[in-house]
Amino acid sequence: MISRKPLGRSLLAGVCMAALSGLAASADPMPEERSLSGLEYDLIGRDDLYTYGRLDTYHQAPFLDDLVAAGKLPPVEERLPETPLIFKTAAMSDGIGEYGGVFRHVIGGRPEGFNWLAGQHQGWGGINMAIQECLVRQGPRWQIKAEEQTGPLPNLARNWEWNDDKTELTMHLVEGIKWSDGDPFDTEDIAFWWNDNVENENVTSRIQAGSFGGGATMEVIDDYSFKFSFPAPQSNTVLEGLAYIQGCPGPSHVLKAKHPTYNPDATYEDYLNAQPADQLPIPVLGAWVPVKHKPDEIVIMRRNPYYWKVDEAGNQLPYINEMHFKLTTWDDRTTQAVAGTGDFSNMENPGNYVEALKQSQDPNAPVTAKFGPRTLAWRIELNLAANMGSSDYDKELRRVFRELDFRKAMSHALDRDAIGQALARGPFAYPYMGGFASGSPYYDAASTDFTPFDQDKAKALLAGLGLKDTDGNGVLNLPGTGEDLVIDITFKAQRTDDRKQVEAVTSQLAEVGIRVLPKSVDETSFDPMWKSGDFTAILQRANFILPTRETCNNLPVSEICPYFHLTGADGRQMLPFEGEVADLVTRISSTDDAGEQTAAARQLQKLLTENVYNVGLVQVPAALLVNKRVKNAHPGTPVFMYEWAEDAVIRERFWVPAADQIGELLPGTVAEY
Ligand code: BQZ
């Protein structure tokens, strides 16, 4: 069994000496960046968004009156917690809303299943976030003024306090929240989430065992309070690791019966599939409950009658009764938003930017498009786990990947301007060198090493590694096996932008004697392949905005992270800078001091780019498109800042005037368990 301990310099073992070469080379500065961001918004205080408290009267969606009268639901006062979350009207761009109607998402993903505790996703594109609620919340932070950026916002955890040396954190849940089937939400769910999922190494939880806070432990205090104890002082920054997608409890009252710890007849495979995509409804804490799933067609959700948030008039949220997720493609999401048959898109497919922008300029267009900062960045992840190669060839190829001069050569061989133009003609793309995207609050251009397009330099670096075309076929040969240097680059079949970039990279690397074999994989099977490390190289759209968000996707913060450098049965040979990278992440997480965070982030950016940890390609801005009939979609919402727009825009506040409401497919109903 691999012991999964958090990494630190002290664990650094077996340095690959060859990787030390090339570090002294001088760094080229990043080219000038022209921002396309046109978002305008006023920043507000944390307490201006929402608070918690009791109101004298509460109201519910009118159709629920009949269900309460028929005894099918308790009165709304009994369905709400003691102190529901209350959204402030002044922060709602179109104020208090009216009930009814449908919100239509379009997504390219497909539900793996509904056991998110075991790492299953429900298709991305906002469907995960519609049903999962997490201890703290990051998305709406985009609107919080800098002086109040003191860590994540409260959510299920209403408040928390640290001990004097910040090694103990006590959190308090909102008291009286109920799952959508009426079962109480309390620390029984927290204990199940933490002990039987996060800390259970047989479960592929969204937090790897031992990685939160450098190896925190958790104990339950009472029904609504629990305490984390950390091996070293922390800060509110570490709490970002308890936001979506990591810190989202599941319904223990249903899942325990299918978990091997509580059911000796169950396997962990049974547990993973405890809430399959074709067995609905399931209990949720989110605003909408999935009630119908037609594969490859649609997921229909109905309002959660126990949802624990209200507006200042005491109206139970959400306003919108029904949410659809049409299951098509990611490109189609923007097409439908611009056509008005869908209500939402993160316009993130540069290939249709020009057309979408043109159409959205029309005053009668159903949406307007305003770009945010560049946060969508693509990179090639070379598999650095040489000891896990499946053949001598694989092992030798990965040893070559571990050579810094090889990664530098690949980077110099890339014409990023041409890759950007292959994605979309126009000013959208900007070089990405790995590390933080330029739209990240942690990004610093001066700390980013740029490797300009230079085929001669690439060829010289490759020759310096003893890589020569010994058989004259135009492809370099590996010194050991003598075979051609061929890199399989796996990418998501459904992502047009990924395909375009792989094609550009294939032709550009061929010019310096590196053959690329593009391998397209269905998006639904991409993540399991990626997380198992079963690839030579992959093209991945990075979400490297915050060092604390999905850290395991990006950095060596535990022995099973990142997926492009896993630990094999005989351990792992860390590259010289990887231990320092892990230390820097711990340093960023253990301080609230902006100056310290900035200094550590700059060191991290420098290390990641001068060592070409990933071979960055390009980065582009995205634009949030929400149908104009939908109210309370704040126009300043970025597609991604602290979290995706689906979280940042606060969909539970959306409403549609009665005259513009679209007919519900399941009117008058709620989930029946
Ligand atoms: C946004 C997002 C909301 C995941 C996913 C998808 C997965 C990745 C990433 C994005 C989709 C949309 O992104 O592209 O605009 O709606 O869902 O979750 O790319 O394949 O694994 O990290 O967030």
Please provide a written account of the structure.
- With 673 residues, the protein is an alpha+beta fold.
- It has a domain at 4-41 and 374-620: Dipeptide-binding Protein, Domain 3 (Dipeptide-binding Protein, domain 3, Roll).
- The protein is 23% helix and 16% strand.
- It contains 18 helices and 20 strands.
- It has helices at residues 46-49, 64-69, 76-79, 127-131, 187-198, 252-255, 268-272, 330-339, 353-360, 392-401, 404-412, 416-423, 455-464, 496-510, 523-531, 578-589, 594-610, 645-648; strands spanning 50-52, 85-87, 102-107, 136-137, 153-154, 157-162, 168-173, 217-222, 225-229, 288-294, 298-303, 309-311, 322-327, 344-347, 371-382, 430-431, 486-492, 515-521, 537-542, 615-626.
- Strands 14, 15, 16, 17, 18, 19 and 20 form a seven-stranded mixed beta sheet that branches. A four-stranded mixed beta sheet has the order 3-13-11-10.
- Strand 8 and strand 9 (225-229) form a beta hairpin.
- Helix 11 runs antiparallel to helix 13, helix 12 (416-423) packs antiparallel against helix 14 (496-510) and helix 16 (578-589) runs antiparallel to helix 17.
- It is globular.
- Mean pLDDT is 94; it is low at 1-24.
- The protein binds galactinol.
- Galactinol binds next to loops.
Helix and strand layout, with pairings?
Layout: H1 46-49, E1 50-52, H2 64-69, H3 76-79, E2 85-87, E3 102-107, H4 127-131, E4 136-137, E5 153-154, E6 157-162, E7 168-173, H5 187-198, E8 217-222, E9 225-229, H6 252-255, H7 268-272, E10 288-294, E11 298-303, E12 309-311, E13 322-327, H8 330-339, E14 344-347, H9 353-360, E15 371-382, H10 392-401, H11 404-412, H12 416-423, E16 430-431, H13 455-464, E17 486-492, H14 496-510, E18 515-521, H15 523-531, E19 537-542, H16 578-589, H17 594-610, E20 615-626, H18 645-648
Parallel strand pairs: 2-12, 3-13, 17-18, 17-19
Antiparallel strand pairs: 1-2, 4-5, 6-7, 7-9, 8-9, 10-11, 11-13, 14-20, 15-19, 15-20, 16-20
